[in-house]
Structures are given as C-alpha cells and as structure tokens.
Amino acid sequence: MSTSRRFKALVACAVVLAATVTTTSVTIATADPDPLARFHGQHVDWHDCALGADDELGRALDDSGADCADITVPLDYTDPGGRTVTVAISRRKATDTTHRVGALLLNDGGPAGASLHMPLTKREVMGEVADRYDLIGMDPRFVGRSTPLDCGWDLGSAPLRSAGADRAAYREEVVLARDLAERCKQTQGDVLPYVTTRNTARDMDVIRAALGEKTLSYLGYSYGTYLGEVYTQLFPGRTDRIVLDGVMPPERYSSTLLRGSEAANEAALHAWASWTAARDDTYGLGATRAEVLATVDHILDAAAEKPLRIGKTYLLDEHVVPAFFIGGLGSDLDERRAELAATVRLLARAADRKPVEPSEELAGQLEFLLTGAGSAPASQMTAILCGDMAERRGVGSYWRAVEESRDRFPLAGPLANNINPCEFWDRPVEEPTVLDNDIPALLVAGTGDPRTLYSGARAMREQWSSSRLLTVDGARQHGLYGEYGNACVDERVNAYLSTGRLPAHDLTCEA
C-alpha cells in the first residue's frame, strides 16, 4: 500500500538490493526444550552500516550514531534445524538510559517496504522521546539488505497494473500474470512458501529475544499495521506500546491489495483535480475540475489507443499509466499534489503525441515500472501477498469485477480489481491470520485515506476495545505521524510513546 513516498521508496529498494547477505547455516541443539534457543540467544554482531563509499543510507545511519547487524532466523519455522536466512536491522540506541523504555521496532509498510532507514526519519518527529528507545529499523526477510529474493522479471510493476480498456487487453494481463508466477516458481520456488507476513512476525520475535528484550514496542504504517496485528496474535503478551498508522484490519487484507478502495481513490482524484484547476496558470491541465478530469480521461484513452512515448526509451501503455495517478493520490499535501500535476502535464503532452523528456524523478519511476530494475521489490511484494493470500478465483471473476466497477470508478476500478500472479501461485502453507485478541494500541487514521480506509480503522477499534483511535478529520492522507506535518497528531503519538498511557477516549485532530 503506497503513498507517493512509498511508491518512490520501492524504486529505491532496487538500489539497496545491490548489497545482499548470503544464506548461512546454523546447527540447532534439538535437545533444548526451546527449538529456537540458538536463534533467541544468538550473539548480535553490531557493525558500521555503510557498505562502501557510495552507500548513502549506510553513511547517514553511521553519522547519526546508529549501527547495524544481521540476525539469523530459520527459513522455515517448522524446521528450525534446517536452512537459515538473515534479516538486516539497524539500531540507534537510547541515550536517556535513566528513562529507557526498551526497543521500538519500526516498519514502513509495503508489503516489502525496506525499513532500515527509519531510525533516521522517526528520530526527528519523536524529539526527546526518541532518546528513551532503542530505535530498530528492519528490512523484512528477503527485502533490502536481508537475504534477497528476485524472480528475474523484466518489468517491475506486477502489483500496480491495470486491466485495460477491453477484454483483449485483460487477456494480455492474464498471460502476463501466469508467466510472472511461473518465473517466480522456477527461480525462487524453494523459498516462496516462507515469504509470508507470519514468518516476518516470527522474525520480529527472534529479534526481540536476540536484543534481550522481554517485550517490543512497535510503530507500523500501512501494511506494517497488518504485520503488527499478526505479531500480537502470534505472540500475545510480548508487546508494550503499539502505534498503527493507516490501519489495515486482517479481514480487509487480500492479494488484490487496493480492492475496496476504489471510491476513496476516485474521491482523491476529484479533490486533486479541483486543486489543480485552481492552479491552471501553472499546470495548464484545465481551469475547472471537469476540465482537469477530461485531461485525465484523454491521457487514459490515448494510452489505450497507442502507448505514450516518454523520451527515447519508455513506452507507457494502458496497463501502466493508471499507476502514476494512483501512486500520486496517497496524499493531499500541496507538495505531493504538485508532483502529480507536473507528471500529468508531461503525460498530457505525450498523449498529444508531442516529444516529452522525463524529469529525473519520473525517469526513476519509469525505470521501476518498466524494466528489470524494479524486479526485486515487485517480486518481494508479490511473493508476500501471494504467500499470505493466494486464491484461485478463476480468471473470469477478475474481469467481471473490473467491468462492474468501471462505470463508477474508471481509473481505480480496473487497477484495484485486476488479476495478478497470486491467481497462479501455490496455495499458502498456512491459513490467513485471524485476530481474536484485544490489546491496548493507538490507531491513527485519516477520514479520507485512499489506501487503507477509515472504516477499517474503526473496525479495528471495535475489535480492540482496549485501543484508542486518533482520527484526522478531512485528511486524504496515507501515513500521518511524522509525515503530515500535523502537530496535533505528532504530539498525541509522542505523549503515548513517552508515558505508555493511552488517551481516556478516542481523539480527533483537524486536517
């Protein structure tokens, strides 16, 4: 689930994956009553984060005083004496040792969002509260600097494709989805059954134990909220302070990740169109909302007729163009809306068959969506979704859902309901997680979030009656704490992280 920021973060994953850790082997003493004892008690070898002179992330972590380590975990938790993999973590140690709370593990979402950087980004918003925690960034198994996974796709956009305008275009998607699934089975079939959220949650508990912590505090965004929920179910009693931002309840998590969010995304598109129309002198996309939306329709129609040429290298067809709109609608901040408007201006010129040169930022997105540069992060995202929720619905069911949604949601419907490789994946080795617990947690949600719906946050609040819901009224924003510039949100989350006391009742901040 991606905001514009997370869309770009997936692009950056391809760079991080250049530095990987090889699979290792650990012998387990089976006589120990705890079959995971060797993992729980492993020595953590902290080291510099930079992997070379060109490693900007590593140098930034080092400069901040953070260090890094690789945690060994079982590939298959039912066979802890078998093959192992590594999970890369970063740590910025607590400096206020007198008031130290413990470890705060951070996850940026995804699925497959690398999170090694998060002690840097969350330290600023947390202020003095950060000094009371060991801030722990984690690249989940097979992501970023952890043991890698790459299906060798020559395009990297499998989770972000649209069905297209007609049945012929959809048949192309069916062929592609089947081919991508087969390539993953051929190249990564031995590990695919273990690329799951439940195993990532188990890795989190190994990290907890290896760090010598009795409990974990946790901050997760988007998909990271689902990961946090799974952890609480698998390891009851091992959590301390939990913040879930952009809440996704388990019953709404599926392999078609955006299904159900069509209306929210179309509403966000209309809101963006009104914002852009008010700045027609800058962007020239239309002086009214209707005119801007007509420009969007023109771009989509042109891409369906003939791929749009961007520069000398890139061709954008009807399956890819909608991802640029959806990817840009995760925030109502002016800066993000301006970025989308600038991209749409280029797409509009391309739709008129005029020469267009991409900006550096747009070129990076195109590289991710259209070439092998995006293969690794897209493979990882797909593998997690399919490992959690693969379902054989029949290829016709997706097309019927696309057609049923198209009239009301012409942009989001064909993308959110499109077929994906999970239709052709092997069945998951475990059933999806069902929550039957109740823990104290702070849930953060915007009423207009186009990725994880506000109704999902309210449903989670009802299930976890001990939790509290912090609502940002009027925000069409995915990811609020430390990302929206809303002092009300930041202060209330920090108060909870500082004291461990939830508000007496649900709270509301204004956007």
Automatic annotation (TrEMBL):
Hydrolase listed as a keyword: yes
Entry similarity comment: Belongs to the peptidase S33 family.
InterPro entries according to UniProt: AB_hydrolase_1, AB_hydrolase_fold, Pept_S33_TAP-like_C, Serine_prot/Carboxylest_S33
SUPFAM superfamilies, per the entry: alpha/beta-Hydrolases
Gene3D superfamilies given in the database record: alpha/beta hydrolase
GO MF assignments: hydrolase activity
Chain ranges of the AB hydrolase-1 domain: 103-250
Keyword Signal belongs to the record: yes
Keyword terms, alphabetized: Hydrolase, Signal
Origin superkingdom: Bacteria
Domain Peptidase S33 tripeptidyl aminopeptidase-like C-terminal: 417-509
Signal peptide residue numbers: 1-18
PANTHER family according to UniProt: 2-SUCCINYL-6-HYDROXY-2,4-CYCLOHEXADIENE-1-CARBOXYLATE SYNTHASE, TRIPEPTIDYL AMINOPEPTIDASE
Organism per entry: Streptomyces nymphaeiformis
Matching Pfam families: Abhydrolase_1, Abhydrolase_4
Name the record gives this protein: Pimeloyl-ACP methyl ester carboxylesterase
